[in-house]
Amino acid sequence: MALHAATAARGHAPDDDVITATALVKTYRQGTADVRALDGVTVGVRRARFTAVVGPSGSGKSTLMHCAAGLDTVTSGSVVLDGTELTGLSDRRLTRVRRKRIGFVFQSFNLLPQLTAYENIVLPVSLSGGRPDRELVDHLCEVLGIAHRLAHRPAELSGGQQQRVAVARALVARPAVVFADEPTGNLDSRSGAEVLGMLRRSVDDLGQTVVMVTHDPEAARYADRVLTLADGRVVGDEHLTPSAGPAVLAPGAPGRRR
Ligand code: ADP
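^ thats the input. predicted complex w/ adenosine-5'-diphosphate below
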């Protein structure tokens, strides 16, 4: 299956920005005071790259992710995601953007407990009226080591397996961006490394764009680029040679080697 061709067929230049945030400000009311969670963030995120957002607790990482993913509104400034200006969109249109163009991986997995692993994986595609690419689903599940667990419900899976189901769910719709929010926060170090390796491979082999919020410097080493926030501002922007993942994700195609 030609996943690289499918990505190229969307007609994007290989190095354009999939997210452009400009002068983002987000204030929250806390009691009688306003807290400036984002204090004028301007940043672009390239396609097919793995970007980590790091910084101390309270620095604005989650707020930036929520605003960039259309989960929260901004106080001022603009976010363009995959060519769509999110600022000012109705809730209905934001939901559509999230369903069609964004995949999420959360710290707490967020799988639906009453559905099997397979049903969880194909849910976003089904919800947006599409049909899952069975070959891609099978291949991802094989590589992620969950092919034999697909009929099980989340409660019957280990944490690492649940997070790998969540990674498969995020990838099957081939979203413009996968946002991962502390994806290893509830995992032991071995399962965490596996999940990070899979996110890395999704970038190298599938051309996926991944943005990951983490407080863990080890996790950030899998990224191509590390943005550091402090007090709601970008205070660091470092380009890395990332750690490689353990497996090749593109069906029938060798991974791009660094
Ligand atoms: P991080 O993810 O880096 O820990 P956050 O984005 O969660 O930081 O928070 C940034 C700042 O915004 C903090 O001071 C936090 O207390 C505040 N904040 C975040 N969400 C809310 C909210 N829903 N209501 C009020 N204040 C908030």
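The pocket of adenosine-5'-diphosphate is lined by residues 28, 30, 35, 37, 55, 57-63 (CB under 6 Å).
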